Q: What sequence folds into this?
């Protein structure tokens, strides 16, 4: 039976968290006002909002559980730090065999779950076994496909053996799900967490102390947490689906903090930024907004057409105008704050140049007929469909800008706004001409990005199917993912990223950033390096 929290069923959990209540002060009060006006000033707390319910808090499953909340309760073996540095978490250290197949982890001693039970190699294996029961569900993560076996060597030694070398294994272990760890008391009797959990018992810095579905969730510090405790005692998350309502609640002082991606409109962010009573921050790039040009479409199979389209719109002006500078124009498909991506790639040929774009189209045989406005070749017009998420105002505005600018070089673009789910289906079915797409971010990239370039089924490999030497590109990707030579891997990444940039089938538009807006009762705020983790370790409060 799927485990769900309800207020009426919280008595047992509340008793088990009595120590938390003693440490953190009186019981949770989600209705306390924010911005430094909490009813009990001895509790160092903040109230923030989130667009949807935090979910069932199962560490091994996906929606509806929210990533930031899962990361509050459950820890990884390996932590993804600044600049892609992999740091000890529940694993104190690790060794990798020369052939790259055997990973041996020395676990951190004296770690306890939130119920006081011991963390050890046996429970690590139990969690791995639960995940691997459903390999198909988790096949998107490359590590899942290459795990041959796992062993609890002794109480504090865990070993993982792979079928073949896979260099991003540690990065995959640092993601928020599915390889995080549930205590024994949380497992269902059949051991299959896909059917639900009994209770959310983790080793993370927080415990879920109070919860009302679709209204709020209250997290308090875990008294058994093994690491340096966060500066906060309590985080209350109010569920506010509507962005305008969220901003209004913030301005009324009902929220201390709003942060995330797309949680408020860019106009609202700019308005709040201009108010000296509030503090605003932008993260480093967390992903790239790109435009896919489907090379399997005969009209887009010619590299000269793809390059002409990339040069045929003013990216700098479009991004600055639509996002008011909150996003940066992107020159490369991946930003340079991932491992292996801080390399020099030639981008001069991708810059705005209408005359050169027109010349490339002429050279490719697409000519403007006398008195016409749309180029033709062999009696066919150069007409394309651009599909976009109809609920995303930035995509819509960019689509309209591209439509207008490409019409000036003789390309007709028809715009189709779709529900996101329909849009994704069309991507995977290779049923599109032009499509807005985003990479995965840290800690998934760059390895997850190049994996979908080579592996069919995600839509990207199919998009690139007509680029020259695609088979050679795929071979380079396989070599990069399996190489145990750091220097060779860097060389392969440079070559792969350079090739993709030159082919212009994935056109980088802008670097997406997270936003944060907070009241001045918050003294400091820092975004985590892992795109999906919570920001609460980076928050301190002002002195009363």
A:
């Amino acid at each position: 039976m799927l485990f769900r929290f309800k207020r009426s069923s919280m008595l047992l959990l509340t008793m088990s968290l009595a120590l938390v209540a003693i440490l953190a002060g009186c019981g949770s009060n989600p209705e306390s006002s924010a911005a430094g006006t909490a009813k009990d000033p001895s509790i160092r707390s903040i109230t923030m909002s989130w667009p949807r319910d935090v979910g069932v808090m199962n560490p091994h499953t996906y929606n509806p559980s929210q990533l930031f909340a899962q990361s509050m309760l459950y820890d990884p073996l390996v932590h993804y730090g600044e600049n892609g540095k992999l740091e000890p978490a529940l694993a104190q250290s690790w060794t990798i065999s020369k052939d790259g197949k055997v990973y041996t982890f020395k676990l951190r001693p004296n770690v306890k779950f939130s119920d006081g039970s011991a963390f050890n190699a046996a429970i690590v294996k139990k969690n791995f076994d639960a995940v691997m029961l459903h390999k198909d569900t988790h096949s998107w993560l490359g590590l899942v496909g290459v795990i041959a076996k796992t062993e609890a060597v002794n109480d504090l030694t865990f070993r993982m053996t792979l079928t073949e070398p896979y260099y991003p294994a540690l990065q995959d272990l640092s993601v928020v799900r599915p390889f995080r760890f549930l205590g024994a008391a949380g497992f269902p009797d059949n051991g299959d967490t896909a059917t639900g959990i009994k209770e959310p018992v983790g080793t993370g810095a927080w415990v879920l102390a109070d919860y009302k579905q679709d209204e709020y969730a209250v997290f308090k510090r875990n008294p058994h947490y093994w690491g340096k405790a966060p500066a906060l005692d309590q985080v209350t998350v109010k569920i506010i689906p509507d962005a305008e309502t969220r901003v209004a609640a913030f301005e009324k002082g009902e929220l201390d903090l709003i942060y995330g991606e797309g949680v408020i409109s860019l106009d609202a962010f700019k308005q709040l930024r201009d108010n000296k009573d509030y503090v605003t921050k932008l993260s480093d790039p967390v992903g790239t907004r790109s435009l896919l040009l489907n090379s399997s479409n005969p009209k887009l199979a010619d590299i000269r057409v793809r390059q002409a389209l990339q040069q045929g719109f003013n990216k700098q002006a479009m991004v600055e105008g639509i996002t008011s500078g909150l996003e940066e124009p992107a020159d490369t498909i991946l930003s340079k704050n991932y491992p292996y991506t801080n390399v020099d790639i030639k981008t001069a040929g991708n810059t705005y140049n209408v005359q050169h774009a027109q010349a490339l189209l002429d050279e490719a045989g697409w000519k403007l007929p006398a008195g016409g406005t749309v180029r033709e070749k062999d009696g066919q017009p150069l007409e394309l469909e651009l599909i976009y998420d109809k609920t995303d105002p930035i995509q819509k505005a960019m689509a309209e800008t591209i439509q207008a600018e490409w019409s000036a070089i003789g390309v007709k673009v028809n715009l189709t706004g779709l529900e996101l789910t329909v849009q994704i289906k069309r991507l995977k079915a290779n049923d599109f001409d032009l499509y807005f797409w985003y990479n995965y971010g840290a800690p998934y990239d760059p390895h997850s990005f190049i994996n979908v370039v080579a592996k069919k089924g995600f839509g990207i490999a199919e998009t690139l199917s007509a680029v020259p030497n695609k088979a050679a590109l795929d071979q380079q990707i396989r070599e990069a993912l399996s190489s145990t030579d750091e220097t060779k891997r860097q060389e392969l990444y440079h070559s792969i990223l350079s090739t993709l940039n030159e082919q212009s089938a994935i056109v980088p538009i802008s670097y997406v950033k997270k936003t944060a807006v907070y009241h001045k009762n918050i003294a400091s705020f820092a975004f985590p390096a892992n795109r999906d983790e919570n920001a609460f370790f980076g928050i301190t409060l002002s002195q009363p």
